[in-house]
Write a structure and sequence with these properties.
13-stranded antiparallel beta sheet, Porin
């Protein structure tokens, strides 16, 4: 199970007549709840799928839909090279609806004549989820008893932007301490992304379970200081 949530602080509503604010406030949020299932079909080939419920809200309007993520990975005998591919956000369209697009209408256009105060609604357009196709390679460039260096590169084709490439290197010591460096969105037009780096630590709780803590920093243009902290429990 996975939960993804994004929320912005509330801000004042500015209009042409009230550029300093009209007394109201608005905000934005996005939420996705996913359930995943994966299986090794052979010792070299695996398949996974995630079903997601997605909800987006801005001010007093919401949009919701469902989508699938489907991925495969194949492990070769060449330095344990892995070949992976995935399709993300294959699903329904979204459309905003809510109180902010409702209004009272006078069908004949004249106050005091004919039907009055007919409850009406503006019709908003539907929009597609950001469908994305990815294919990537990863392999061990160095592998000894204590040290492992893994290089990875993947190419991404989104339906709402130009193609781009991500690349990175992970250095591991005794599969306990990890260091990583990479570069995001190479060849993406007008990209604000770039250098990424991070580190991680894996703690063995028992012979069958572990806890892993990872930290990452990303150069993301105008967002400046973007940081990620991930805590994983595996068995």
């Amino acid at each position: 199970m996975s939960v993804t949530s994004l929320r912005t602080p509330e801000d004042i509503v500015r209009t042409e007549a009230n550029p300093g604010g009209d007394g109201r406030q608005w905000g934005y949020s996005a939420f996705a709840l996913g359930f995943s299932f994966a299986r090794s079909l052979t010792d070299k080939f695996s398949l996974g799928v995630t079903g997601k419920y997605i909800r987006e809200a801005i001010w007093d309007m919401t949009a919701q839909g469902f989508a699938l993520d489907i991925g495969t990975i194949y492990t070769t005998t060449l330095n344990n090279m892995r070949i992976g591919a995935s399709i993300s956000n294959f699903g329904s369209t979204m459309r905003l609806d809510g109180a902010d697009i409702t209004f009272n209408n006078f069908p004949d256009g004249q106050l005091g004549q004919g039907p009055q105060n007919i409850s009406s609604i503006y019709k908003t357009d539907t929009y597609n989820l950001p469908l994305t196709f990815r294919i990537g390679l990863a392999m061990e460039a160095v592998k000894t008893e204590k040290i492992r260096a893994t290089v990875a590169v993947d190419a991404t084709h989104p339906n709402d932007n130009s193609e781009y490439v991500n690349s990175g290197v992970e250095l591991s010591f005794d599969e306990m301490f990890f260091g990583r460096i990479g570069y995001k969105a190479l060849f993406l037009q007008n990209s604000e992304q770039g250098l990424t780096w991070g580190a991680g630590f894996r703690f063995e709780m028992s012979t069958t379970a572990f806890v892993k803590v990872d930290y990452a920093f990303a150069d993301f243009g105008r967002l400046n200081n973007v940081q990620y902290v991930t805590v994983s429990i595996g068995y």
